[in-house]
């Protein structure tokens, strides 16, 4: 027996090493990291900031944590409250979620004479309201009969988005960067917008179009995306800022960071959300050019967009989203290598400086701050879902320790003005509660409903039939507001897309008159016309290629009745005809 045990020794050791790593749990238990205690610390971090915002800053946009008061930053709409709303639900606080929903309905008005960033209003306000709207039933809010195709938060999101539409009325379809919420684009407004400010609308605007049935939002977002694509350089890169009237590039630095970042992110996320091949192939083309010209030793530099020559050997903290994006397209090994580079910078400073000079291995003058940004934590969350590598939990641990040690003050958490001497700034950005805390919590909460793998879901009856919600696969907008992709299939307004029992019955009963019968089906691509007779099938096939280019509405081709009622209908019909 002893000899046998000895020979099995190495195997038993391996087996024993395997056991403490359950698939849904954590590999970091091996390194003594208690995720439950970190999860609770993140929760406490949220409430320390949130309660002080409510106490000292609401209804202003943001908390000023050093003076315990508030300020308006992005347009006077109680921004931190809108941005933090879905985080409340992710932390499981339904009662406060419900209270805030009614506060926002009463108190927020977009008919105000305020100049607002088109980009920021979209990702923070429209994104936050859409996400909260889609989660409100889960949060126990009494929803309207037509939900998710109607509801107060959806109406608010639509109202905010409509205020942004005048910005898109340019010869190129690329939007201005700033709009007045009352008067539209100001006369004399600068026509120069950054690439991200043009290409970061498809997630929110396509969701709005699918839920409200008004195609204008998705249309302008697509037009802007395509205009950027059309204006890429011969070597396949886009610059940083472009003139939206003339389509001339004003800032010609190409990279993956500030000014460009979320354009690439939204090509991938838009492709996933809308099952849109064209958006994904655009991204994959860019990805090749980015690898070819900007990637060196798993770092990404800035290059001149036409020549490909290095213009700045700088890593910006905003670029830290990239490993997470790579993981979404399945490129996990490259993602992990780049992540580890970025993590070394974090460990050097206890945070990510806004700019880091790669060859010199140090901060850049005037860019030594860390405003509690989420990007590295966001990438850690995605990569942890993909790999369960405990190193990723260690970054989460370091972030919690750093933020608590350096930036926590009596009234919340303050932006770190300089990572070298830990001076603070009197500001707490709304993304701290929308993103940083949310991604930290999700990193430490493997069983959160957001991580649902589809084994659990809700069936909702809408005026357009049944639909499935909360089955997982959430797509986060660039402000970490989760959008349920299944919701986009709940509100199909066109008659051809409604599979009603009567439609089926009529088809079957017309069998006697017609001899040949084809069941209406919804094509995979294109405008959802019902299937033609067999003779038309070949022309339809030909049309499918051009349609798939457009595929402006990826239509879920499942009938909207429940399965057993469908079988009953079919069974009944066949009995009648035998």
Automatic annotation (TrEMBL):
GO:BP terms for this protein? carbohydrate metabolic process; endoplasmic reticulum mannose trimming; positive regulation of retrograde protein transport, ER to cytosol; response to unfolded protein
Molecular functions (GO terms):
calcium ion binding; mannosyl-oligosaccharide 1,2-alpha-mannosidase activity
* Positions of Ca(2+) binding: 478
Start-end of Basic and acidic residues biased regions:
522-547
- List the keywords (alphabetical): Calcium, Endoplasmic reticulum, Glycoprotein, Glycosidase, Hydrolase, Metal-binding, Signal, Unfolded protein response
Q: Name one Pfam family in it.
A: Glyco_hydro_47
Keyword Metal-binding found: yes
Major location category of this protein: endoplasmic reticulum
The protein's required cofactors: Ca(2+)
Query: What does this chain do?
Result: Involved in the endoplasmic reticulum-associated degradation (ERAD) pathway that targets misfolded glycoproteins for degradation in an N-glycan-dependent manner. May initiate ERAD by promoting the first mannose trimming step of ERAD substrates, from Man9GlcNAc2 to Man8GlcNAc2. Seems to recognize and bind to exposed hydrophobic regions in target proteins.
The protein's name in its UniProt record = alpha-1,2-Mannosidase
Tell me which species this is from. Podargus strigoides
Q: What is the lineage of its organism?
A: Eukaryota, Metazoa, Chordata, Craniata, Vertebrata
């Amino acid at each position: 027996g002893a000899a046998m045990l000895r020979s099995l020794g190495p195997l038993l050791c391996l087996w024993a090493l395997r056991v403490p790593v359950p698939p849904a749990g954590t590999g970091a238990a091996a390194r003594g990291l208690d995720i439950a205690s970190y999860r609770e610390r993140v929760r406490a971090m949220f409430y320390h900031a949130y309660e002080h915002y409510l106490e000292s800053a609401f209804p202003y946009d943001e908390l000023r944590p050093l003076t315990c008061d508030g300020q308006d930053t992005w347009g006077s709409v109680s921004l931190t409250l809108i941005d933090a709303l879905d985080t409340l639900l992710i932390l499981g606080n339904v009662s406060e979620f419900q209270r805030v929903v009614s506060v926002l309905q009463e108190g927020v008005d977009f008919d105000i004479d305020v100049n607002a960033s088109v980009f920021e209003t979209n990702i923070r306000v429209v994104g936050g309201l859409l996400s909260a709207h889609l989660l409100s039933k889960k949060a126990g809010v009494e929803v309207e009969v037509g939900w998710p195709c109607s509801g107060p938060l959806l109406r608010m999101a639509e109202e905010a988005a409509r205020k942004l539409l005048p910005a898109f009325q340019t010869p190129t379809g690329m939007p201005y960067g700033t709009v007045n919420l009352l008067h539209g684009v100001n006369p004399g407004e600068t026509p120069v917008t950054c690439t991200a400010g043009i290409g970061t609308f498809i997630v929110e605007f396509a969701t709005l179009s699918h839920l409200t049935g008004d195609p204008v939002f998705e249309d302008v977002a697509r037009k802007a995306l395509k205009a950027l694509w059309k204006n890429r350089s011969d070597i396949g890169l886009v610059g940083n800022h472009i003139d939206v009237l003339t389509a001339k590039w004003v800032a010609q630095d190409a990279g993956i960071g500030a000014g460009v970042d979320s354009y690439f992110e939204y090509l991938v996320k838009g492709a996933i959300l809308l099952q849109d091949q064209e958006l994904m192939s655009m991204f994959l083309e860019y990805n090749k050019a980015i690898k070819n010209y900007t990637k060196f030793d798993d770092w990404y530099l800035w290059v001149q967009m036409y020549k490909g020559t290095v213009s700045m050997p700088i890593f910006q903290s905003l670029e830290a989203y990239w490993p997470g994006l790579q993981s979404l397209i399945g490129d996990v090994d490259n993602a992990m290598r780049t992540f580890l580079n970025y993590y070394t910078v974090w460990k050097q400073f206890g945070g990510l400086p806004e700019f880091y000079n790669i060859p010199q291995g140090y901060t850049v003058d005037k860019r030594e701050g860390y405003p509690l940004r989420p990007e590295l934590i966001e990438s850690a969350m995605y990569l942890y879902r993909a790999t369960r590598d405990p190193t990723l939990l260690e970054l989460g641990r370091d972030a919690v320790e750093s933020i608590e040690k350096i930036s926590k003050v009596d009234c919340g958490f303050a932006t770190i003005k300089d990572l070298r001497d830990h001076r603070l700034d009197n500001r707490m950005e709304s993304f701290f509660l929308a993103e940083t805390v949310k991604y930290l919590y999700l990193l430490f909460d493997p069983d959160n409903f957001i991580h649902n793998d589809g084994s659990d879901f809700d069936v909702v009856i809408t005026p357009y039939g049944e639909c499935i919600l909360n089955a997982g696969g959430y797509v986060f907008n660039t402000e970490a507001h989760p959008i349920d992709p299944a919701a986009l299939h709940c509100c199909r307004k066109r008659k051809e897309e409604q599979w009603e029992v009567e439609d089926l019955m009529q088809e079957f009963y017309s069998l006697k008159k017609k001899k040949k019968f084809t069941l209406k089906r919804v094509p995979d691509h294109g405008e959802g016309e019902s299937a033609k007779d067999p003779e038309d099938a070949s022309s339809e096939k030909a049309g499918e290629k051009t349609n798939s280019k457009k595929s402006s509405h990826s239509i879920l081709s499942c009938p909207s009745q429940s399965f057993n009622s469908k079988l009953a209908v079919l069974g009944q019909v066949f009995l009648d005809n035998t």
